[in-house]
Amino acid sequence: MNTLLSIEGLTLARGGFVLGPVSLALGPGERLVLLGPSGGGKTTLLRCLCGLAAPDEGRIRLQGRDVSDLPPERRDVGYVPQAATLFPHLDVAGNVAFGLRSIGLPAGERAARVAGVLELLGIAPLARRRTAGLSGGEAKRVALARSLVLRPSLLLLDEPLAGLDGRARDSMAEALREAWESTRTATIHVTHDREEAWLLAGRCAVMDGGRLMQDGPIEEVFRRPANRFVAEFLGGGNVLGTEGNLVYVRPEDLVPAAPGEEAHYAGTLTAVTDRGAFAELRVRLPDGTVLLARVPPAAIRGLAHGSPLPLHRRAPPHPLGDVRTFSPFWPSPGSPAVEKGD
Amino acid sequence: MTGRGGGRTVASLTGALLAAHVAAHIVLSASGGTEPFGLLPLLLLAANAVVFLLLLTGRGEPLLGGAVMFLVAAHAFVGDLVAPDALTSGAILLVNVLVVYVGTKVARHLPFRFLAAFVASYFVLYATFVLLLDNAEALFLLFLLLLCAAARSFRLLAYFWALVLAFTFFQPFAFETLLVSWFALSAVFGARGAARAGLAKVFLGAGLALLTLVFFPVVVSVLGENLLNVGNVLKDARVRAALALTFETAAISTGVLLAVTVPLAYGISRLRFPGRTVLLSVIDLPVVIPQSVAGIALISVLGRNQYLGEFVHGLIGVPVDNTRLGIVVAQVLVSLPFLAKAAIAAFDAVPAELEAVARTLRTSAFGAFRRVTLPLASRGILLGAVLAFARAAGEFGAIVILAPTPVTAPVEAYTRFLSAGAAETAPLVVTLLLFSFVMFFLLQTAIRLLPAGAAGEGDAR
Fold it and tell me: For residue A86, what is the nearest residue in chain B, using CA coordinates?
């Protein structure tokens, strides 16, 4: 399988922060969610890819071409920053046509391309609007259209759903999916929100402290985190055992033990939170560890704070690796989820 | 909330007033103080009786009625003593009845502070025009009428007091004072801001009052000048030549400055480099140094028989001193900070992220500058250019040392002042004032009316 983008040993040090070394590969038309806490180097990585930041070391290859030293305008990489940063002196159509003017497309063709992409993202009625009056979701769509209209071979989206309210967020996610389905542009989404990761794509790379922690299909990353950081960031806790011998118990795998069922853990119920679609139980074990269980809302009926609660584990615990030893190189999409060790 | 008890109290109060009126009438007539059955006292008595009946039947306002009866009674018996004649006395009575009427309206319909301001105004007017000034009763009455008209709004009251003060205490410049103070008042009262912007308005008012002192001479000299004289000045060939030269050299200077400072300002705005702070201070230097010093510094480097001056002379065949070139050099130096600072601020206000995004849209660095940064900074830069142009056109100190000829307008005004004195130069001064102000105002307005990003892009419309 061919590779569209490959990043090899990319590092960048700025002040106290060190990005990388990061190695990563992306296939044509693939979608990757880059997930991690704020300040983890996600945006810096994107800016290295689009040429707005210069890495200290490492190579970036795009379609077999080494683009590491090319300026942004010669990379064929679209970048949509977190704040939409539309050009305030141009209207929506002017913003979207900006790059097309730069590559010297004739006016007629330019107008057709702009109309096409506005239509695709459902913002055609906004074409003549000033950017100042746009809502957050509209502005993000215009910014996306402005990059997409150039048909880049790689599209970088920094927090495309951040700062939008629930409905705008869902419809923006839908727009992103539709845009991807009709253009099949390879895309990297950056987000710090694990729920957004589910909304966006199938492959997920987790990043923290400037380094990749895990990379694989999203179900795999959530179900079988590679190390303690990923388990705690995605699962919300439930890391048991001692250093070097850690295991992860998915909150979804824990249920109050029914009579006759094996009680793997016995502790005291300290908190019950109904989150609508599911409920969360916190159970303090005798050694002080607090376990999190995600159960159907119906399962919390009759449970009282402070009462003893035995928990049944429906799947075996997942062993965790060491944070330091994970150094992924992802040669091609579709390979098994987690590769450990060098 | 006047209950029946309150109404009865007021009715008996007016009854007492009426009884006192009648009693005083009888006593004064018996003692020969007034004519016993004179027409006026009897009429007044009858009027008071009518007012009393109206109040008893509950048709009038008790307070107003009582006060009017009191006024009428008081005037009937003491009016002759304070007023020089019966006509004045009657006028005072009528105006005072009006004052009482307006006062009760203000008391009933507006917050207490309006009544306080109204009453205070009344007594200040009384103190000023009756006690302080002689023979000013007529003015007192006239101003009372205006006060009554203005009582329902603090804004009108403020205009009223500006009028009174201007015509009482700033007599030779009454109209000028009135113009300036009404302008300041309309700015303050017209000011709109957040819901509780009271402090800002007070500061605005205080600032305008201080500013007024600065602008007073300008307003006085402009309003005091005959427009015909201004027309005559403009017919003078010397003046016209000086104006044309000033305009021409200032335009060239501004062009030179734009070419030099816009790239420089962009670099300073986008980069951090050693010596940046020093450079910013150096740019400000022409504002700080006296213009005469700047002129002497220039001529000691660029003048005749100076190395650099001779070098330039040899290079382009034109000497620097006493030529247009010298004028432009002096103008460029003194107006540099105005454009440079404005351009730096304008570039600072354009987020670098916009340029970065433009770069990812297949746009070169220069393309991003030309199509994003420059349009967004253009308004700030043009405003700076207008300021620099005005500064260049107004430069005197450095020019009079480096290049007193050919003669620019400021130099012309100065030589006229030296040879003919202030009075003879006044028309020219006013002409220059008006010329500068109108041009400056028009240019600034024109630039402010530009859309934020100057022109958009070709097919965006």
Answer: B354
What is the tens place of the pLDDT at every residue in A229-286? 777 777 666 777 766 677 777 777 777 777 777 777 777 877 777 777 787 878 787 8
What pLDDT was estimated at residue B270?
Answer: 92
Residues paired with residue A11 on neighbouring β-strands, in sequence order: A57
d(CA B361, CA A96): 10
Nearest Cβ partner for B362 among A52, A102, A143: A102
Residues of B in Cβ contact (< 8 Å) with A85: 351, 353-354, 357
B450 touches chain A (CB under 8 A): no
| Interchain CB contact of A103 with B (< 8 Å) | yes
Among A73, A77, A101, the residue with its CB nearest the CB of B457 is A101
Q: Do B362 and A97 touch (CB under 8 A)?
A: no
Closest CA to A128 of A172, A181, A98, A91: A91
Give the residue from A51, A44, A46 showing the smallest Cα distance to A33. Answer: A46
Q: Do A91 and B459 touch (CB under 8 A)?
A: no
Residue A323 pLDDT grade (very low, low, confident, very high; cuts 50, 70, 90): low
The pair of three-digit structure tokens given for residue A163, joined into one six-digit string:
């700062």
Degrees, nearest 5: CA angle A41-A42-A47: 95
Region label for A303, one of left (φ > 0), alpha (ψ between -120 and 50) or beta (otherwise): beta
Asked whether residue B339 carries a pLDDT value surpassing 90, the answer given is yes
CATH architecture group of domain A232-319: Beta Barrel (2.40)
Q: Tell me what pLDDT residue B6 has.
A: 53
All CATH 2.40.50.100 domain ranges in chain A, comma separated: 232-319
Beta carbons of A107 and B459 less than 8 Å apart: yes
Q: What is the pLDDT of residues A193-237, one digit of tens each?
A: 877 877 776 788 888 878 787 777 877 777 777 777 777 777 666
Return the residue of A nearest to B379 by Cα: A89
Residues of chain A with CATH 3.40.50.300: 5-223
Most A CBs within 10 A among B361, B370, B459, hence the mutation to make, goes to B361
* Share of residues in chain B with pLDDT > 90 (%): 18
Residue ranges and CATH numbers for the domains of chain B are 4-224 (no CATH), 233-455 (1.10.3720.10)
Structure confidence at residue B267 (pLDDT): 94
Instruction: Classify domain A5-223 at the CATH superfamily level.
Output: P-loop containing nucleotide triphosphate hydrolases (3.40.50.300)
B134 touches chain A (CB under 8 A): no
pLDDT interval class at B342 (50, 70, 90): very high
Q: Give the per-residue SS3 of A315-338.
A: CCCEECECCCCCCCCCCCCCCCCC
- List CB contacts (< 8 A) between B357 and chain A: 79, 81, 85, 143
